[in-house]
Each structure stands twice: as structure tokens, then as C-alpha cells.
Design brief:
The protein is of the alpha/beta class. The protein has helices at 23-37, 55-68, 85-99, 104-119, 150-167, 184-200, 214-221, 225-228, 239-252, 259-269, 273-286, 294-318, 322-338, 349-356, 364-372, 391-396, and strands at 44-48, 72-77, 172-177, 204-210, 229-233, 347-348, 376-377, 383-386.
Length: 401
């Protein structure tokens, strides 16, 4: 098959040629946009799931829906230990620009507030040369959204930007990827601002995406967060959706798969969207012609596995310290014994400590380090699981160090 015409896209956050299995989330968000446009109360949205299930792709697709509705939009990717003010200011600046506000006085006033909010990232009393300049071409307006308390400032800033959008019959949507990496104060402020905006009925929504423990992070910050967001777990694709993700782009190129090939591909990928793209690309490249057969899939499997080993599994494993790698290998072995690969409940931390012959408390530094690196998560107290599907299976296939 012609590799130039290969339609598959196994890239990080790269939209696949056929976004299969996400119609429910796209339709739900469209309802949210239209209800808010009509002045109806609605909640913000949080997407959760393992790595490789397409959260970022879906987040970008939802943003496209907001853009088509003529909303102002902005997007950030949260990073551990990073200050929220700078990236959020840039995202909100873009959102205001997209609104195309004709009332110049109101636009400049809100942008002035936004600039003052951004400049507080340098801390009170900082010299002008030390303050970040966000590229907003108006003077800073002090007295609102610049108290230095992120919760107070976000509530005021969101309300004023939403009011600006409401005046022109539009809305604002902010999209936050890797939301679980926000700091505690930032999470609390974000929840408080969404709560206030919701109570006022203003056209402003936050759409977050993160790992499976994100709801617990939000709940620990504000008890009412359980009622503040629509929570949608993004999981692997059902068999028919995985087949659609493979066949639709192939048919566009005049090619197809045999039923046996589709069966083999679903067995190999478990329906995880990133794996579907990786195996689809490899199978296309080795197949001599259409239809792609189960034999072609078998020949392509080593190339697909090598691609995943380097770009999906290996790069993550390399980031871990020796103690963290020991922890992950023990977790992988326990999953293998129990046959629970991919189970969101994971394994009990006490069992993991027993397997290593250590006290549970002594493993806390490795566990906390892996959580901060986004390699494992705790869905419930006393249990731990990988954030990456098939990671345990990958580790069990690697030689001991």
C-alpha cells in the first residue's frame, strides 16, 4: 500500500481521520452551548480517562464546536508547579479577541483588568522590569481581579469577561488540558469561579480534561464540585467504533479490511484510540494491497509494538527514578498475577509493599513521584493503577535492569 496515502495519525493529541465513538460527548456539549445561549443554566464539563484514549483530541473538537458557535475560546495545558495566571491570561486574551467586541471602551476596560490580573504573577511589590508583559495593548486597570488572591481575582475576572460576552450575545469557553496538574489553590479558585458564574447565569464554561483521579482532586478542593461539572469518563472504543476508526479513512482511500483483520486489530489494540491508529498505520504500510488481511496485521504487529515501545511506553519509563521503576515493575507483576491489566481499581498498595518486602510508608516517595509525573494514579484510597493502558504488560515484557 502507498505509504504516502496512509491515512492514520498516531500522534500525541493529533486528530484521527475519523473521530469515532465520541458522538455522545460532542452532542452533549452542543446542548450545553445552545442552552447557555438561550439563558438556561448549565454546568461546565470535565473529561477523564487514561492516556491514549483521546482526551486532548476530544477537547480540541469541543473547542471547535464553541468556535463554530461564535464563542470566544482559549486553551491551556496545566503543568505541575506552574503558575496559572500567565497561561490563563493568554487564553482569556485570545477569547476576548475572538469575541470581536465593537464597544471599544468596554473591551479596553476588561483587557486592562486582564493585564492587571496577569501582572500579579510577579508578586506584589515587584519592579516593573520583573513583571510579565502579556502582550495586551492597553494600560492595566487596577482595583479588580488584581488583589493577589487567585480565588477572588478569578471570580471577578470571569464575571467581567462573561458579562462582556453576554452584551454581544456570545459566550466564553476555556479549555484546560492535564487539569489534574493544577495547584491546590488554582483548583479551588477555578471551582469557586465556575460556581459564581453558574449562579449568575453568565455565558462562561470551563472544559477540563485529565486523568481518572481528576474528580477526586476537584472534590477535595470544593465539596460542591461534584455538582458543579458534567463528568464524562472517556474510555476505549467499542468494537464497532474501533472498526469505524479503521475502515472509514481506508475506504476514503479506496481500501478496506477483511473481517479477520478487524478482529485481529481489535484484539491487539483493546480499542484504545492511540493503539488503533498505531496498528492501523503499521498494517497499511506492510499490506501489499487491499483488503488488508489478518496476515498483514500479524506482520505489522512488531513494527506497531516497537513504535509504542519508544513513543508511548519507553519515554515515560525513562523519566522515572530507579526507585520509581522498581515500584512500577512490582505493580506490573501484581497486575499480571491477578489478570487485572487496565482495571481502573488497580492494586492495593499494601499488596505492593508486601511484594517488595517493604513497609507501605517507605514507598510513599516513589508513589508520590510517579503520581506527579502522571505515570500512576490513585482512584481510591489504598489503591494504585497505571495511567497508561497496557503499561504493565509492556513492563513485564522488558528485561530486568
Amino acid at each position: 500500500m502507498d505509504p504516502i496515502r496512509n491515512p492514520y495519525a498516531p500522534g500525541a493529541g493529533q486528530r484521527p481521520p475519523e473521530l469515532a465513538g465520541r458522538d455522545a460527548e460532542l452532542d452533549m456539549f452542543q446542548v450545553v452551548l445552545e442552552r447557555i445561549a438561550r439563558g438556561r443554566p448549565e454546568r461546565s464539563l470535565v473529561l477523564t480517562g487514561l492516556r491514549g484514549v483521546g482526551k486532548t483530541v476530544l477537547l480540541n473538537s469541543l473547542r471547535s464546536s464553541a468556535v463554530r458557535a461564535r464563542w470566544g475560546t482559549g486553551k491551556i495545558e496545566a503543568r505541575p508547579g506552574a503558575d496559572l495566571r500567565r497561561p490563563l491570561s493568554a487564553a482569556l486574551h485570545q477569547a476576548v479577541r475572538e469575541l470581536s467586541i465593537r464597544d471599544e471602551e468596554s473591551r479596553r476596560h476588561v483587557l486592562g483588568e486582564l493585564k492587571a490580573f496577569a501582572q500579579r504573577s510577579a508578586g506584589e511589590g515587584s519592579k516593573l522590569r520583573d513583571k510579565w508583559q502579556p502582550g495586551i495593548d492597553v494600560p492595566a486597570v487596577t482595583g479588580r481581579a488584581d488583589s493577589g488572591d487567585i480565588e477572588i481575582d478569578l471570580v471577578e475576572l470571569f464575571a467581567d469577561i462573561a458579562g462582556l460576552a453576554q452584551d454581544v450575545g456570545k459566550g466564553v469557553a476555556v479549555f484546560i488540558d492535564e487539569m489534574q496538574d493544577l495547584g491546590e489553590d488554582d483548583v479551588s479558585a477555578l471551582c469557586a469561579a465556575c460556581h459564581e458564574i453558574s449562579q449568575q447565569g453568565l455565558p462562561f464554561v470551563v472544559v477540563g480534561a485529565g486523568l481518572p483521579h481528576l474528580p477526586a482532586v476537584l472534590s477535595a478542593s470544593k465539596s460542591y464540585s461534584e455538582r458543579l461539572f458534567h463528568y464524562r469518563r472517556i474510555d476505549r472504543l467499542a468494537r464497532e467504533d474501533a472498526e469505524r476508526a479503521l475502515r472509514a479513512p481506508a475506504l476514503e482511500e479506496g481500501a478496506d479490511y477483511t473481517a479477520e483483520a478487524l478482529e485481529a486489530l481489535y484484539t491487539a489494540t483493546d480499542g484504545y484510540p492511540y493503539f488503533v491508529q498505531a496498528y492501523g498505520k503499521a498494517a497499511w504500510d506492510v499490506a501489499p494491497g487491499s483488503p488488508i488481511t489478518a496476515e498483514d496485521v500479524a506482520v505489522a504487529a512488531p513494527a506497531a509494538q516497537a513504535e509504542l515501545a519508544v513513543g508511548f511506553f519507553g519515554s515515560r519509563y525513562e523519566r522515572a527514578t530507579p526507585a520509581e521503576r522498581e515500584y512500577m515493575r512490582a505493580l506490573a507483576d501484581l497486575e499480571g498475577v491477578a489478570g487485572t491489566d487496565g482495571d481502573p481499581a488497580g492494586v492495593a498498595t499494601k499488596d505492593l509493599a508486601a511484594a517488595l518486602g517493604r513497609k507501605p510508608q517507605s514507598l510513599s516517595p516513589a508513589r508520590d513521584g510517579l503520581i506527579k509525573k502522571g505515570l500512576v494514579y490513585s482512584g481510591e484510597r489504598g489503591r494504585i493503577a497505571f495511567t497508561v493502558p497496557h503499561f504493565g504488560k509492556y513492563l513485564r515484557g522488558q528485561p530486568e535492569e
